Structures are given as structure tokens and as C-alpha cells.
Amino acid sequence: MVKRRKNHRSSENLHADSVASNGVQNGVENGGAKCEDEKPALLIDQAAEKKWKNWWVRTTWTLIMISGFFLIIAAGHLYVVIFVMLLQNLVFKEVISLSHEPNKERKLPWFRALYWYSLLTTNYFLYGESIIYYFKRSVLVDAFLLPLATYHRFISFMLYCIGFVWFVTNLKKGHYKFQFKQFAWTHMALLLVCFQSHFIINNIFEGMIWFFLPVALVICNDIFAYIFGFFFGRTPLIKLSPKKTVEGFIGGWVSTVIFAFMFSIVLIKSKYMCCPAENFSTSAFSDVQCDLNPAFIPVEYKLKPWMFRLLYHLFRTEIRHVYIAPLQLHAFVMASFASLIAPFGGFFASGLKRAFNIKDFGDSIPGHGGITDRMDCQFLMGFFSYMYYQSFIKSVTSSSIVILQDIINNLSTNDQVDLYMNLQEYLVGQGLLSEKVIECTQALLS
């Protein structure tokens, strides 16, 4: 009888331990939700000392990052491209490190090297495509670059095949599941990080404004959403980010739309911002000239009678016409995306952090976390900006020089020489070249 009671009691204890263990495990899996309930999640409810300390740290480093960003923008297209690629590599490193398991990786030689080989191969393909497309006039006339450009996609595919064979030949018994999980994780990181940052760099080549404006809109929305949430935030927005509030979300959107409309007026006055990149030697101090995209040219709009009367009552001034650049209307769409859709890139990152039970992706930026914590919305915004620009803004102009280069590139060597000689004869006949040029050319070819 005593023995039965003892067994019954021990079974109750085991059940209690099991419940407690499951509770702890669930708390960990939910990102410490139980602990979060005990602490004030909203910024407005936090202790004043802690809240203001975080405010000043965050504000100081925000100003430092914005200042550095302006300096890089002024330095020129080359430095901006290098900056984006550096950020891409750092984000890739932080994302890959989430699934880092040292004990298993030590037993797999060259395992982490495969990560960086995959990154290198992907960058070779994506940025090679961009360079060939945007700098075709330079690439297709260079004897060294021409074969690389012609067979670029095949070379990229073979590089990927080398990495694929490398992965398969390094599969080790007892680690199959871990290795395939890392293989899938690497491809996900390449898709979310490298693929999207590739379009950000394309925006730079199309014109600095298509890179600068989207980035500025995300930064503006982040700042004002934080300010409105700091002072007025009472209604939680989403469980993935308990500090985000509806007040901050809406306040950030309204502020970003106003900022976009006004700031775009300033940007269209700079040829450096508006002109596409023709080479990597230009900077903010260069004399840049180009035919402006119609989106940058203000258009006259005649106000409706009720608009005229409203403005007269408000400002006591007759305003019958206004000039608005199409970019300002496009900026409204981009600002709305930066405020209403791009933040979900941050919510996605928050869900990822909760899945791995971490607070931030790193601690490289005081008050902000890691590089990924600042770039989670920028990648999605940059991708959208490229698609929106290509669909609604880019002026479609057929360059005869580019078309001729494509034709010449497909001619045989003898046909290219004949075309060159015929062109020389034509220019001599028009009096634009001396006959000595043809004689010198014939002497060199013979």
C-alpha cells in the first residue's frame, strides 16, 4: 500500500516536471513571450530613464549613419556600389550565422567556404548582367571583356555547377540532414539578400535618385514611426514586433508622404541625381549633363474653381495654376510603399529572430542592432523601386548605337573589317576623314 502511494506520488511529480518543462520550452519557442508580458513592451510604457537613454543612443547613431550616407552619395556611383555590396556581404554573413552550429561544422571540412563561394558565384552572375546591360558600349569593344560578356551566363552556370558538385562530394554520413538544411538556408539567403540588392545597384545605374529617394523614404518612415510611437503609441500593431504601434505606423506614413512630395522637388534640381551613370568617374562635384527623363520636368496644372477658392481663403493669394513634376506623384506611391508594405520586411526579420530566439541580428550599431536590423526594409523597398521605375517611369528610347553594336557583335571578323573599311570610305567621301586614314588602315591590315 505504501509502495503504491509512493509510485502514485512519483508519477504526479513526473507529470508536474513535464508540464514545467513544456512551459519553459514553449516560452523559448515563442521568443520569450511570457517574459515579454511581464515587461512593458510599448515605448510609452517603459521607464523614463531607460526610454530616454535608448532615445539618445539611437538618435546619435542615426545622425552618424545619415552623415556617412550623404558623404558616400557625394563621392560617386562607384563608392555607392561598393557600399551596397559591402552591406550585402555583412547582411549575408549575419543571416547565415543564424544557423551556425560549430560542433557539426568542425567535422565538415570547407563547409563555411561553400557559403562564400555561393555568394561569389551569385554576385558574378547578377552584377555581370548589370555591367553588360548598362555599360554595353564599353564592354563590347574591349577584346578581353567581349568573350566574358558573350559567354557570361554559361560561365556563371558552370561556376554554380562546380559549387553543386563540391557540395555533393562533401556530403558526410551522419550529417546529411544538417548539410541539406544548410544548403537550403544558403539559397534562401542568396534569394532574399543578393537577388534584391542586385536591383538596388541597378537603380544606381539608372540614376542616383532612384537609389537615394527610396532609401531616404525608408529612413524617414523609420524615424517618424519611432517618434510617433515614442510619444503617442498606445495601440499594438503586430505581435511579431510588440514595440510597433498603430499610431507610429500611421504617423510615419503621413510624415513620409509629405517628406517625399517636398524632398523630390529638391532632388530634381540636381543633374547628378537625375542622370543615368555612364561611367564610374562621376561624383557630386562633376559637371553631369544628360537629357532629363520627363518625370523630372514640372507640368502645369490648372486648379479647379473650388481649389482656387480654398487656397484663396487659406493664404489670401490668388493661385490658379501650379507646377508639379510627375516625380512628385510617383514619390507619393513610393512613400506609401515605404510606409505600408516595406515595414513587413522588418516584421519578417522579427519573425526570423523569434524563430532563433535572438533579440537582434548583431550589435554592430549601438541602439539599432546589426546591419540586417537596418536593411530588412531597404531590400524590399529597393526591389519595388526598380520594378516601379521600369514599369511606369523609365522613358523607352532606342539607342541606334547600342543596336548597331549588337549587330556588329554577331558579324564574323572578316565582315567587321569590311564594314569598317566601307565606313571609312563613306566618311572620306563626306570630307570628314583624310584619304591617308584609309591608306594607313590598309597598310596595318596587310
Q: TL;DR?
A:
It is found in: Membrane. With 446 residues, the protein is mostly helical.
List keywords for this structure.
mainly alpha, 2 domains, two-stranded antiparallel sheet, flat, transmembrane helix, nucleotidyltransferase
Describe the structure.
- It catalyses: a 1,2-diacyl-sn-glycero-3-phosphate + CTP + H(+) = a CDP-1,2-diacyl-sn-glycerol + diphosphate.
- Its EC number is 2.7.7.41.
- With 446 residues, this protein is mainly alpha-helical.
- The chain has two domains: 52-108 and 172-397, no CATH class; 407-412 and 414-445, no CATH class.
- The chain contains 20 helices and four strands.
- The chain has helices at 2-29, 33-38, 48-75, 77-97, 102-105, 111-134, 136-139, 145-150, 152-169, 176-206, 208-232, 246-267, 271-274, 305-315, 326-340, 343-355, 371-393, 400-409, 413-429, 435-445; strands at 236-238, 241-245, 299-302, 321-324.
- Strand 1 (236-238) and strand 2 form a beta hairpin.
- The N and C termini lie far apart (115 Å).
What overall form do the CA principal axes indicate? flat
What is the count of β-strands? 4
Estimate the mean pLDDT confidence.
82
Give the radius of gyration: 29 Å
Helix/strand layout:
Elements: H1 2-29, H2 33-38, H3 48-75, H4 77-97, H5 102-105, H6 111-134, H7 136-139, H8 145-150, H9 152-169, H10 176-206, H11 208-232, E1 236-238, E2 241-245, H12 246-267, H13 271-274, E3 299-302, H14 305-315, E4 321-324, H15 326-340, H16 343-355, H17 371-393, H18 400-409, H19 413-429, H20 435-445
Antiparallel strand pairs: 1-2, 3-4
